[in-house]
Every structure is written in C-alpha cells, then in structure tokens.
Specification:
single chain; 342 residues; alpha/beta; Rossmann fold; 2 domains; 7-stranded parallel beta sheet; 5-stranded parallel beta sheet; 12 helices; 14 strands; 15% strand; globular; binds glyoxylic acid; NAD binding; D-isomer_DH_NAD-bd
C-alpha cells in the first residue's frame, strides 16, 4: 500500500480527513506528531518509500531529500503559496508533481500586508509602547507623526494575486498613483482586480488609479510606499540591495510580505539608520525566526512581524485542505489541481 508522510500536525479537519483515508485503507499515514517542524534526519529517514509528502515552508525539498525518498515518490504538496523551498526542477525531472495552495490565502495575506503598511506608516507599535512605558508625554506638534497614505504613490513589486488584492484594498485609502513592476506585465485580470470603481459625493463614478507597469528603478524612485509581494526566485533574490534602496525616497516606507530572501538585510539596516529610507515593515525575514538580537530589531523605524500573512484560522484550514487535495490527486496518479511548474 502507498505511504504518505505528513511532516507536521495540520488543522483538525485536515488531520481528520487524512486519518479517515488511512482508516479506510486508502494509504498508510505517517504523521509527525508535533505542530513544530520535523528534524531533518527524521524527515530524510521517514520520506524513504513514501509516495506523497505533505510539507510546509520549513521542509527543504532538494536532491538529497528526493534521493532519500526514492523513485516511488509521486507528489510533494506544500501548505503554502510560495514554493522557493522546493526544488521544482529536480522534482519535475524525476516525475514528481509539486502542488501549492494559491487563492485561499490571498485575502488574508493582503489584509496583513495593508495592516503592516498602515502600522509602519503610522508608527503604531512604537506609539502603543510609549503608552505602556510611561513615555506618553504632553502633546507635541511632531510627536509620533508618520506618513499619509492618501494621495501617495504606491509601488507594488510583483503584481500577482496578492499584490493585486493589496492594491484593491489601498484603492479605498484614496491613493494618488499605483505603479507595479514584475514579470507579468500582461496580466490584465490582475490589473482589473486591482482597480475599484466608486461613486463620488456628486454621484459621478470614478475609478481608483489604474496600475501602471513601470520599470523597477523608476518605481523605486517615484513611490512613497514600496510593497514587495513577489515570489522568491533566482531573479528576485537579494533584489532589494544597497543600490535599490539608494534609489528610493528618503521619506519612503518599504513593506515586505513576500520572502526575506529578496532583501539584503545589511543594506536595509544601513538604509534605515542613515535615513536613506524612512521606515520598513517586514512580515518575512532571513532567517526565520530572526534571532532576537538582530540589528533590525533595535530600530524604532523597523516593524518586524513573525511571518503571519496567512495566519487566520479559516485561511490556514483552507490551505491545509487544498494541500490534502493536491496530495490525493498526486498519489492517485492524477494531475494535481494546484500544481506548479519549474
Ligand atoms: C506563505 O508565506 C506562503 O507562501 O504561503
Ligand atoms: C503568489 O505569490 C500570489 O501572488 O498569489
């Protein structure tokens, strides 16, 4: 009988579904009993002989793992939309399908990205900490002043589903201009999704700014808010480096809810401490978790969140269910419904 390996505890409904399939004799289920990651040696050992692997961001799927798993492996199903931790080329070359969980996390991740942008622009964590620490002094004209969203130019690096959903939300904040860069200039559906029509006070109808495809360098020069929602690939690795931060406005806010690997963090630290840019909000870092003594965590103008973009109960469950769907199709030898190609 085929065996599947689930590398950590998922949501209850997903685990119940997986266990009922095993109880019906459809496959043998091997599950890691903890909600934390499986140690690498354990993963290598238990992947051996499996037909399907249900994994998360912390499990690196490379040649070593695929060798350890063996030639019967049919599918690698990750509970994430990002798949930079999976060697898709190597999987494809061995006839192993790769599945991910797009769409179901788009809204939650866009909500978090906009929350991060607003919190960073308006200094919420610093302001809240002052209240708690007895540093709420007399009213001062410049105290805790941040940046306006309304009328601003927003640049989205990577207008995918999440980027478009971020733009759609920001339309409601009356932004002035919307620029985007990325490998997908022809994605008209995304541009449409990012645009919102609304009724003015006088009854006339207008539209939020139509996203304009813009070369990256120009986007960085013109944007008040630079938001990264691109995938981590060979092309985007460390793309936010010293030269790119130098192009940005000294008043700019940088927001990253994509992957830590797209940022040169030393360059970001320098940009934040020398006033090259005003502030940054990061939901992703490199490494994760970021060590508590990391220099970025000493800065008042840098807000760091622990990679919680998709962290709502419903969204995480929908991701798990989608990952199980991919796994089932894969072990049945069918095309996975949400597959990724190299
Ligand atoms: C989260 O970062 C994901 O890729 O789902
Ligand atoms: C993937 O990164 C997306 O935008 O859905």
């Amino acid at each position: 009988m085929q065996r599947i390996l689930v590398t950590r505890q998922l949501t209850e409904p997903a685990m119940a579904l997986l266990r009922s399939g095993a109880a019906e004799g459809k496959y043998i289920l091997d599950e890691w009993a903890s909600s934390g990651p499986m140690p690498r040696p354990e993963l290598l050992r238990r992947a051996a002989g499996a037909s399907g692997l249900l994994i998360t961001l912390s499990d690196k799927i490379n040649g070593e793992l695929l060798d350890a798993a063996g030639p019967q492996l049919k599918v690698v199903s990750t509970v994430s939309v990002g798949y930079d931790h999976v060697g898709v080329h190597e999987c494809t070359a061995r006839g192993v399908q790769v599945g991910n969980t797009p769409d179901v996390l788009t809204d939650a991740t866009a909500d978090l990205t906009v929350s991060l942008l607003l919190s960073t622009a308006r200094l919420l964590p610093t302001a809240a900490a002052c209240v708690k620490n007895g540093r709420w002094g007399p009213w001062h004209i410049n105290w805790m002043c941040g940046a306006d969203i309304s009328g601003s130019t927003v640049g989205i690096v990577g207008l995918g589903r999440i980027g478009a959903a971020v733009a759609r939300r920001l339309a409601g904040f009356n932004i002035g201009k919307l620029l985007y860069s990325g490998r997908n200039p022809a994605a008209q559906a995304l541009v449409n999704h990012a645009t919102v029509r609304f009724v003015n006070d006088d009854g006339s109808i207008s539209s939020s700014p139509i996203p304009q495809h813009t070369p990256l360098e120009q986007l960085l020069r013109e944007s008040d808010f630079v938001i990264a929602t691109c995938a981590l690939t060979d092309d985007t690795k460390l793309m936010f480096n010293k030269e790119r931060f130098a192009l940005m406005k000294p008043t700019a806010t940088f927001v990253n809810s994509a992957r830590g690997g797209i940022v040169d963090q030393d360059a970001l630290y320098e940009a934040l401490t020398t006033g090259r840019i005003a502030r940054a909000g990061l939901d992703v870092t490199s490494p994760e978790p970021l060590p508590p003594k990391h220099p970025l965590l000493t800065l008042d103008n840098c807000l760091v969140l622990p990679h919680i973009g998709s962290a709502t109960f419903n969204t995480r469950n929908a991701m798990c269910m989608r990952a199980v769907q991919n796994l089932y199709a894969g072990i049945a030898g069918q095309k996975v419904p949400f597959g990724v190609q190299a």
